[in-house]
Amino acid sequence: MKKVILIGRPNVGKSSLFNRLAKQRIAITSDISGTTRDTNKTEIFIDDKSCILIDSGGLDDSNEIFKNVKIKTLSEAANADIIVFMVDGKMLPDEQDKKIFYELLNLKKPTALVVNKVDSKKDEERSWEFNEFGSKEVFSLSVSHNIGTDELCSWIYKLLPETTIKADMSDDFDEFLEGFDEKGEIDIEKPSVDYETKNIKVGIIGRVNVGKSSLLNALVKEDRSVVSKIAGTTIDPVNESYVYEDRVFEFVDTAGIRKRGKIEGIERFALNRTEKILEESDIALLVLDASEPLTELDERIAGLGAKFELGLIIVLNKWDKEHGDFDKVVFELRDKFKFLAYAPIISVSALGGKRVHKLYPLILEVYKNYTQKIKTSRLNEVIEEAVRTHPVPRDHGKIVKIYYGAQFGFAPPKIALVMNKPRSLHFSYKRYLLNKLRENFELNGTPVTLIPKNRSQKESAENENR
Predict the structure, then answer these.
(1) How far apart are CA 193 and CA 79, in angstroms?
(2) CA-to-CA distance for 344 and 264, rounded, in angstroms?
(3) Which tens digits make up the pLDDT trace of 376-396?
(4) Structure confidence by residue, pLDDT tens digits, 183-237
(5) What's the CATH superfamily of 171-190+373-464?
(6) 208 annotated to bind ligand
(7) Residue 380 is assigned to a ligand binding site
(8) Residue 212 among known ligand-binding residues
C-alpha cells in the first residue's frame, strides 16, 4: 500500500490536515509548536483507493527532542512513496523551508508543496510568493475551513494504484447483525466478533520515562518512537503493526502519565487520548521501571487496565539495572497490586532488547484466554463442585441457591450466575468462585466478570452488566 507523508516545520498544520483526511481526530492539535513528535499512521480512503497516511513530527533543531524528531521524520520521508511538504501561508517564504524542500526533491518521489492557512484574500496574494520554490505541484489550503483539500486529494488519488477495496461499512454491518437472533437478542453461544482473525490491539501504558517508547521500538524491531531522556517526549499515541505467527499485533505507545497536579497543557489531551486507546484495546502492557521503587502513580495507572477490563501483562523494564531478587520484587508487586493478581509478570530490558521476544507468545496466550468461550457443561461442573465443597452462606437463615452458570460475554469472559437470591451473594463468595474458575480454566492475564442473576427475570444477561 502506498505511503503518503505530511512533512514540514512545526505548527504549519500537518496534524490538522492528517485529521481532516482521516476523517477523525487521531493526532493531537494545539497552538504549541512541536506538539507532534512521533509519526502517526492510519489507513485512509480517497474515493475507492486507499493509502497509508503519515503525520510526521515538525522539522526543528532547537533542542534534543526536536533534533531526534527531525532525524526520524526525514527517515520516514525516505521510506514514503508520496511527499506532501507543508508551509505556513501566514508567513513569507523561508530559506530554511526551501532548503528542506530541495532535499526532499532529491528523493525523486512525487512531491507537492502545500501552502496552508490561506484563509483570506490577503493570504491568497501572499501565497503566490511560494512559487519561487519552483514546485510543479502547488496547493493553497485552509485546513481549518476545509478549503482546497479536494484538489490535493485528487492529485494523491492519481498517484495511487487501482484497487477493488471500497470504503463502505457493509461487511462490518453484516458482522454486527450476525450477533443477533431473529428476536433481536444476543446469541450467547457465539461472539459477535471473529476473535480468531481480528487484529490484536495492545496498548502500552505507564508513567513518564519508564521506557514505553523503547519497548515499542523493540517489539516492532524498528525505531518507531522517538526516545529521549527528557520526560514526556511522547505526546501523540504511536501505533505500529507487527505480525507474529500469522496474527497481527497493533501496538500503541501512549503518552506517559504524570501525577495529576503536574499534568498541564497538551498533556491533558494526551491523557484523554490514552484512555480512549484503552477503551479500544484488547490487552495492556503495564510498563514499570524495575530500577526504581513502585509508586502510588504506578498503582493508579495499573487501575486503568482494570477499569477498562483489559487483558493485562506487567512488564518490569530496565531489569538490567536492577540487582535485586526477582522473586522478592514480584512478591512486593503482588502485594501492592492485589487487584491484578491475574496478570503475568515479565522482566525485560527494552533498550537492550533482552527478553522482549518472550512477550509475543505471552500476548497470544493472554488474548486466547481473554476471548475464550468456556464450555457450559464444564463451567457448571466446576461451580457445583465449588458449592459442594463450600456451600453458599445463608441469608438470614434462608437458603441461597446457584442454579447454574452461563457465559454471556467475551473479551473478557462474563459469566451469569442464575440464582434464587442474587443480592444475597457476598463478595467474598464471588471471590471464592473466581479463584475456583482460575484453578480449572486457562484465565492467566484476563479479568473475569461474575454477575448474579435472578432466574425469574426475563432480561438477557448482558443487560445486567450495563
Answers:
(1) 34
(2) 33
(3) 999 999 999 999 999 999 888
(4) 333 344 456 678 888 999 999 988 888 888 889 989 988 765 444 454 444 444 4
(5) K homology (KH) domain (3.30.300.20)
(6) yes
(7) no
(8) yes
List, in order, residues 6 or more apart from 464 with CB less than 8 Å away: 416, 451, 453
Is position 317 annotated in a ligand binding site? yes
State yes or no: 382 annotated in a binding site: no
Q: What are the grid coordinates assigned to 313, written together?
A: 501483562
Residue 29's closest CA among 16, 48, 10, 17? 16
Identify the DSSP state of 206: -
Closest CA to 390 of 424, 351, 430, 419: 430
Residue with cell 530554511: 96
Q: Check the annotation: does 454 bind a ligand.
A: no
Q: Which three cell numbers, joined as nine digits, stand for 329?
A: 520484587
CB 206 within 8 Å of CB 256: yes
- Cα torsion through 352, 310, 25, 261, rounded to 10: -80
**Rounded distance, CA 368 to CA 366, Å?**
5
Which residues make Cβ contacts (< 8 Å) with residue 326, sequence separation at least 6? 347
CATH of domain 200-371: 3.40.50.300
Residue 420 labeled ligand binder: no
Type of residue found at 323: H
Annotated binding-site residue? 10: yes
453 is in an annotated binding site: no
Q: Does domain 3-159 have CATH number 3.40.50.2000?
A: no
